[in-house]
Amino acid sequence: MSKRLAFAVLTLALLGACSSPPPRPAPPPPILDPDSACLKDLHDRRVAFEPQAATGAGSCSIANPVKVTADSGTSWNRPGVMSCSMARVVDRFETQVVQAAAQRILGQRVAKLHHMGTYNCRSRRTETTVASADMGSKGGRLSEHGKGQAIDIGGFELADGTMISVKKDWRGAGKRSEFLQAVARASCEHFNVVLTPNHNKLHADHLHLDIGPHKLCSM
To answer: Angle at which helices 84-93 and 34-44 pack, to 10 degrees?
Structure first.
C-alpha cells in the first residue's frame, strides 16, 4: 500500500470516529413509589389483601389502606383494614413470632388469627376516657386504630382446632399461657406499643399491638 493510500484510509477512519455519537449516559435508577413498593412487598410475602380507596378524613385516616384476610397462609377470623405498613409488620409478626412460638411450645402451627378490631376512628380507651365517655365526653388522644396502625388480637386457633384465648388462657402455668406470654414478649421487638392483660382491665381479653410513635411494652 502506498503512503498516499495509507494516509487516505487513516484519515477516513479518523473522520468516521469523530462523527460517531457520544455514548449515552446510563439512565438513573427508577424511584419507587413507597406505597407501591409496600403493596408489592405484601404480594411477595403471600399476604391475602385488597388495596382500598382512601379511608377516613383528616387525622382519622389511613395512609395506603389495605384489607387483609390472611397472612402467609394464616387466615383471619374476619377481614381487617389497616395501613400497608401495619399489614407488613403484622405479617412479619405472624411468621417470626406466632408460628415460631406455636411450633416450639405447642408442637403445631397456628391456623387462624382471631382479632377483635383494626381500623376504628376513635380516641384511645383508657380507664379515664371510658369513665368520661360514660358521662357523655368523647375527649382523649386519637387512637392508633384511627390511623390504621393497630390491631387487637383476642386469640389464636391451632391447626387441630384448639382455641387459645387471651381472656381465658393468659394467666396460668400451662402451655397455652406460656405461648401467649411468649408471643406478647417477642411482639415488643416488632411493634412500638404492646398492651396485655397486665396493663389494665380494659385489655383483659386481648393484646393491643400498634406501630404508632410512642413506645410501651406492657409485660
So the answer is: 30
